[in-house]
Amino acid sequence: MNMILSLVIGIVFATGVYCLLRRSLMRLIVGIILLGQAANLAVFTAGGLTVGAPALVGEGAQVPAVGAADPLPQALVLTAIVIGFGLTVFAVTLIHRARETTGNDDVDAFNRTDAV
Amino acid sequence: MSDSTLLFLQLIVPVTTALACLAFRSSPRFQQVLGVTGSALGLVVAAWLLMRVDTGVGIVVAQAGGWEAPFGISIVADRLAAGMVAVSALIGFVVVIYSLRGLRDGELGAEYLPLYSLLILGVQGAFLTGDLFNLYVWFEVMLVASFVLLTIGNKAVQLEGALKYVMLNIIGSALFLVGAGLVYGKIGTLNLADIAVRLADPEQAEVLHTSGILLLVAFGLKAGLFPFFFWLPSSYHTPRVAVSAVFAGLLTKVGVYALIRTYTLFFAGKFADLQGLMMWLAAGTMIAGVLGAAAHFEFRKILSFHIISQIGYMVMGLALMTPLALTASLFYLGHHIVVKTNLFLVGGIVQHLRGTGDLARLGGLARGMPWLAVLFFVPAFSLAGIPPLSGFWAKLGIVKAGLEYEAWALTITALAVGSLTLFSMTKIWMEVFWKDAPEDANTNNKPVDGRLWPLVLPCVVLGSITLWIGFAGGDMLMFATRAAEQLLNPEIYIEAVLGPGRVGS
């Protein structure tokens, strides 16, 4: 399972980077989203994968059973997903506005702020 | 009041200010009163905290929600953090005064003050947190607020600048997240002090070849390090002046702070592996920044490139990692925040009066407005390192540390970059103040009326501080020395957070 997820993370990262290197604004946003998701998956996987052992304290016990899932990575990923969602929504709106004002989807058209 | 209450208060003040400003956005006058009061209160609390930390206990720790470290989130103010919080509160206060004019003219909307307070909250939270993931969250608080502030005005050029800023910073955040996640996956803790304890074990330290580099890239991107700085000069000259001034003063410094914090605290054991790389990055940052500044011909663009080259000096201090180098680096950090914010503010006054920031279309201001020339002269030539202004002492410390370390190439780079900085500062001076105004220029100045005071007062305050650091900076230097001592002995930090007896266990 670890192996499969690692490969998936690698593929998602690679796809994200590929999209970021394209010249279209639309691909840029897809790249950002993929990169964020890959990061979330990486945190989740690095936190350790467990099957069928929820992080719940059994009746009468004080602590979860040995081998139960670690709830912290899940909480971290949850936080990261929410933040990532907010950032993505802002980025999408920004790209939409930028396209409206310049009427162009080509990243190369956005070179005014760097001109000497 | 107990010390830990003070820590929480430091974060509660800006968040309350933000909420209050949001609630009263329909009555601008009252909102402005709230904004100024909130920032002033923040400054008072920060000064108090700094005093408590420096003269009293040396380090103040609070555990959020009463959860004992390392299980909860620790909030820690050592000398570095308290000093940074104090400087950021000062900048927060003076820039809010500066914004009053923009708010009155309607350049800044009703959303400005709430977002501004949240930005300050994010910056101060990042300085005070003692938890790696919490640091990520504070970075995001700061980023989201900065995204919106950057686009106030909605002009095409602002959207373009924001686009570059947003994209590169989101990538940086993703890398930060992966770096933090890998640290947790390998050693099972996110508390900075606890990470430091566990990484003292050389077997565990290997993880840092991955996480250390990921965090270096993530923080380097926020700090504007070479080769990750491209978002900075393409966005900092586009927003409203007050916004770019507070960005220029504070945001990149949070990245530098994070680098100093992580590399002195828990990457210290493996620092030798990365030292060479960091020296190269510092040299590249200095050179790239100063060459960009030499090439450009627009007020705020030149200043933006100077931020980058100055970041190079601070990172050079960190890369050398001797007590003197680190002291000089911290001194540089404090001096730079004050000077750089001031320069952007003065540039804003010029732009306000003449309606342009293009050097070719400006001129004659030294004769027309000598007071403005003086306001510019102090920070500009302090940045360039002319004695006895504050920048000279900062550069002197860095160069001396470089010579003591016998890092010849790096030191020569620093000196050469220093003279090029002087060149491009002289360029602004000659073009804007010294030469006669060009014939086609808009020389009928806007009247210098009494309403200009919100723009001028912050520059006077910051300029006086620069002069004070220059002529009587001994106190600040001693403080930087004490802060550096604390950083070079991480067991002080670890013991304060985790309690005695954990070091080396």
Task: Kindly describe this structure.
The complex is a heterodimer of chains A (116) and B (505). Chain A has 116 residues and is an all-alpha fold. Chain A has 3 helices and no strands. In chain A, α1 packs antiparallel against α2 and α2 packs antiparallel against α3. Chain B is an all-alpha fold and 505 residues long. In chain B, 77% of the residues lie in helices and 2% in strands. A two-stranded antiparallel sheet of chain B has the order 1-2. In chain B, α4 runs parallel beside α11, α14 packs antiparallel against α17 and α16 packs antiparallel against α18. Chains A and B meet through α2 and α3 of A and α5, α6 and α10 of B.
What brief labels describe this structure?
heterodimer; A: 116 residues; mainly alpha; B: 505 residues; 21 helices
Relative helix content of chain A: 55-70%
Low-pLDDT windows of residues of chain A: none
| Percent of residues in beta strands of chain B | under 5%
**Main pleated sheet of chain B:** 2 strands, antiparallel
What string gives the helices and strands of chain B in order? HHEEHHHHHHHHHHHHHHHHHHH
Radius of gyration of chain B: 22 Å
Pick out the low-confidence regions of chain B: none
Chain oligomer state? heterodimer
Shape of chain A: elongated
List the helices and strands and how they pair.
The complex is a heterodimer of chains A (116) and B (505).
Chain A lengths: L1 H19 L4 H22 L24 H32 L14
Helix pairs in contact in A: 1-2, 2-3
Chain B lengths: L2 H21 L4 H30 L2 E4 L10 E4 L1 H27 L6 H17 L3 H19 L5 H32 L4 H8 L2 H4 L2 H16 L7 H5 L5 H25 L5 H25 L3 H22 L2 H32 L10 H4 L1 H14 L6 H16 L2 H27 L18 H20 L1 H15 L1 H9 L7
Helix pairs in contact in B: 1-2, 1-4, 2-3, 3-4, 3-11, 3-14, 3-19, 4-5, 4-11, 5-6, 5-11, 6-9, 7-21, 9-11, 11-13, 11-14, 12-13, 12-18, 13-14, 13-17, 13-18, 14-16, 14-17, 14-19, 14-20, 16-18, 16-19, 17-18, 17-19
